[in-house]
Amino acid sequence: MKKSFARAIGFVMAAVTLFNTCSFAAADAPAVEETTEKAAEEIKEQAVTPDVPYKTVELDENDPNYYKELLAAEYYNYKYIRSYPTLYENEGWASYQGKANILGQINADELTDSDKEKIKAAKEAREALVQLIPFEKEVYYIWGDYAPVIQEEHKWDDSKWDNEDFRPFLVPYLVEDQSKAKGTLLIVSGGGNQTRSNQVEGYMVCPAFVEQGYNCFLLQRRVDPYNGDETGLDLQRSIRWIRAHAEEFGLGGMDVIGAAGFSGGGGNVRTLISKYYGDITPDKFDPNYKPDEIDAINSDIDVAMIIYSGRALETENPKLPHIFIAVGEDDSFDGSIELFQQVKKIRNVNPELHIYGQNGHGFGAGLLGTSSMLWIPSADMYMQKVMGKAESKFDGEIPAEYTKTQTVTYGGFPIGETKVDVYLNDANTMIYVAFFAWGTEQIVEGMLQGDGVIVTYDKEGYLGRNGDVPKIYAICDPEAWVPVER
């Protein structure tokens, strides 16, 4: 995808690190002030012309309706800006949040002088924001002019998380070198279906997965007054949108497509894989919706990460993804165990369940000082394993007399399914088995007698005793032998 995303995000993070370093370096105040001022100037040099569609007030400040209209405009702006953190220099955005998030507590019909000062402060903080990335290069709307709905009516008021004209969109967090991307993930924060808890489960989780080598797209999805089924359609569309634009944007890692959902977001992911999979299109649920070319793209995912949101699935989906489940021990985790036990019975789903002690609900990217800090690296290892990318292939030299080979998957080891390379000589009288397991190369050699094998060499002295080699030979396909490449 466009490298400007990664560069701009990286610059913001570097600037934040610099600011944090300066705040603790009080021993030499002039040097700190000079460094901070230099960093601020560098950030301003990176700024772009603001192009976020803010609302403004044309009335004169002396007009009796000025502050009432300004409150409405700035509260509208705040609801948008809080969903665009990667557009702005971080410190200014954080400062703005602190001054604008109180606007919803002000009574527009009984404005005091103190209220007016708060409204002005929010306006000034917005005007001081330093935008680092053009809006159109960071905010990607997933639907066209019409997004499908399931409820007949949606009632709006100021208590809703978004403005009435909100449109769901994706925000990219990308690895620098797309040729090394391990996969592409859709991240869905929690917040029930009333809010989006992106501060904990989006803006921290996405960079953590990028560090592991994954492209991430944070979904700013529809929430109340929309329902969970409508949000599920947003997820389905996001998967299709990413696939539709992958070549255009030069995305790597498209051979592993996953979705990670937290709490309510995990429920949305469960809805995606339960109801909105494969070739199912939104017009099945909203007859007024007209499918486009993006809706023709398959919406199956390879991996679903259900984070403190477990519940058994009710679905006819014939192609369930691999499922990674994580939950805190102090949370209500019975549903997570139920989900694990359910999908464990389904072949080729290969679930994994982690229950983290001294963790409750909402640990996001990991609670500092606890083992939940390891869940994202664990999810990385899980995805690589279930997608067949973590196999440590035997790379030793094969004796010259073995001329043909094939690779089989053997499930008889206590470690689970393992890929094994099998070699035969021209006369089909000798067999050589090689694979990597238990942290070392395993090699067994033997003579074939009918369907049996007489082991003549066993590198670790384990496989020959347990009868694995005859079983491995038995699952070989007589038609699948290919010449050994040397």
List keywords for this structure.
486 residues; alpha/beta; Rossmann fold; 8-stranded mixed sheet; 6-stranded antiparallel sheet; 14 strands; elongated
Chart the SSEs and their pairings.
Blueprint: H1 3-23, H2 29-46, H3 66-81, H4 90-100, H5 113-127, E1 140-141, E2 169-173, E3 183-188, H6 198-201, H7 205-212, E4 214-220, H8 228-249, E5 257-262, H9 264-275, E6 303-307, E7 322-328, H10 334-344, E8 352-356, H11 375-386, E9 402-410, E10 418-425, E11 430-437, E12 440-449, E13 452-458, H12 468-474, E14 482-483
Parallel strand pairs: 3-4, 3-5, 5-6, 6-7, 7-8
Antiparallel strand pairs: 1-2, 2-4, 9-10, 9-14, 10-11, 11-12, 12-13
Helix pairs in contact: 1-2, 3-5, 4-5, 8-9
In short:
By secondary structure, the chain is an alpha/beta fold. The chain has helices at 3-23, 29-46, 66-81, 90-100, 113-127, 198-201, 205-212, 228-249, 264-275, 334-344, 375-386, 468-474; strands at 140-141, 169-173, 183-188, 214-220, 257-262, 303-307, 322-328, 352-356, 402-410, 418-425, 430-437, 440-449, 452-458, 482-483. Strands 1-2-4-3-5-6-7-8 form an eight-stranded mixed β-sheet, sandwiched between helices.
What does this structure look like?
There is one protein chain. With 486 residues, this protein is α/β, with parallel strands linked by helices. The chain folds into three domains: 125 residues, no CATH class; 227 residues, Alpha/Beta hydrolase fold, catalytic domain (Rossmann fold, 3-Layer(aba) Sandwich); 82 residues, no CATH class. It contains twelve helices and 14 strands. Strand 7, helix 10 and strand 8 form a beta-alpha-beta unit. Helix 4 packs antiparallel against helix 5. It is elongated and about 100 Å long. The two termini are 38 Å apart. The N terminus is likely disordered.
